[in-house]
Amino acid sequence: MKSLIAAALALSLVTGAAWAETMRMAVTTSFHNSGLADILLPEIQQDLGIEVQLLVVGTGQALRLGRAGDVDAILVHSKAAEDSFVADGAGTHRREIMYNDFVVIGPADDPAGVTGAASAAAALQAIAEAGTPFVSRGDDSGTHKKELALWQDAVSGQGADSFGPWYKPVGAGMGAALNTASGMGAYILSDRASWLNFANKGDLALLYAGDPVLFNQYAYLPVNPEQHPHVKADAAQALEAWLVSESAEALINAYEIGGETLFVFNARR
Q1: Is the dihedral of CA 85, 86, 90, 95 positive or negative?
Q2: Helix 59-67 and helix 79-87: axis angle, to 10°?
Q3: Is the distance from CB of 79 to CB of 87 less than 8 angstroms?
Q4: Residue 21 parent element (H or E)
Q5: Taking the CB of residue 250, how many other CB atoms lie within 10 A of it?
Q6: CA–CA distance from 266 to each of 46, 98, 133, 146, 253 (Å)?
Q7: Could you please report the per-residue DSSP string of 110-164?
Q8: What sign has the CA pseudo-torsion 239, 242, 243, 248?
Q9: What's the CA gap between 97 and 268, in Å, rounded?
Q10: Residue 228 and residue 189: Cα distance in Å, rounded?
Q11: Counting C-beta atoms within 10 Å of the first and last residue's C-beta, which end of the chain has fewer, N or C?
Q12: Cβ(142)–Cβ(248) below 8 Å
């Protein structure tokens, strides 16, 4: 993989790319809240001479920034939306990098009784039947998209827009939504990394995890320079080569909080 990075750097010399300049990458709030960016970005700059400027938004907004050519690449976690992005020509391709999982967080005394539920859908169904407060990201993020899909399974196709006042969409990132849930003593769907790195847990606890449907894949998508000739395609190519390298694998797999691993590297080389 070092040879791939070297090849990308060599390409930059041939094309005259200015590696001292920043490149812009839209990333999810869940990735940013995990703290992993603070580990990876200095190593990227040291190894490649590229300063990666992050735009921290939900997956939906990240894809819109990519379609507009406002960023050079995106790192998000909603496969169907990513596939559409590539199929429409907005991105050159989709490259899986790492994964974790979604978890159901709620009051430690678990008034809806989701602990021990047979499935993620059953856990949400218990919340709906109890009418206990549930905080939704409500921001078109990858987490929000996953939550809506789970509700479809949980309540026989009934959409979240038909729920009662117990359902609380906040239109905010993962950290802000977790803060709201902590203040209200509400349930919430979170990615595991954001939960582990969240400081204001209050009376909240991780109550449900483990259903395979909660798998949470992160992927890297370079913006298509044929649609947006100004994007820094060479820098995006070099960054991709680094993200799937052995160096990145070691850093991602070693990143822990409280002895718990936040992400698992699964890029194919």
Answers
A1: positive
A2: 10
A3: no
A4: none
A5: 11
A6: 23, 5, 35, 20, 10
A7: -TT--TT-SSHHHHHHHHHHHT--EEE--SS-HHHHHHHHHHHHHTTT--GGG--
A8: negative
A9: 8
A10: 35
A11: C
A12: no
The residue count for the chain: 269
Q: Rounded to two decimals, what is the model's pTM?
A: 0.86
- Which amino acid does the sequence have at 202? G
For 185, list phi and psi in degrees, rounded to 5.
Answer: 65, 45
- Which position has the token pair 């047979």? 118
Please state the separation of Cα 256 from the chain's center in Å: 17
For residue 140, give Cα distances in angstroms to 29, 60, 182, 250.
12, 5, 21, 31
Distance of alpha carbon 137 from alpha carbon 159, whole angstroms = 15
Domains of the chain (ranges; CATH) run 2-99+215-265 (3.40.190.10), 102-214 (3.40.190.10)
Distances (CA, A) of 262 to 57, 101, 138, 196, 217: 20, 9, 24, 8, 12
pLDDT in single tens digits along all 269 residues of the chain? 444 444 444 444 333 344 467 999 999 988 998 999 999 999 999 999 999 999 999 999 999 999 999 999 999 999 999 999 999 999 999 999 999 999 999 999 999 999 999 999 999 999 999 999 999 999 999 999 999 999 988 876 566 767 889 999 999 999 999 999 999 999 999 999 999 999 999 999 999 999 999 999 999 999 999 999 999 999 999 999 999 999 999 999 999 998 999 999 999 98
CA 88, CA 103: separation in Å to the nearest integer?
32
Phi, psi of 42 (to 5 degrees): -60, -35
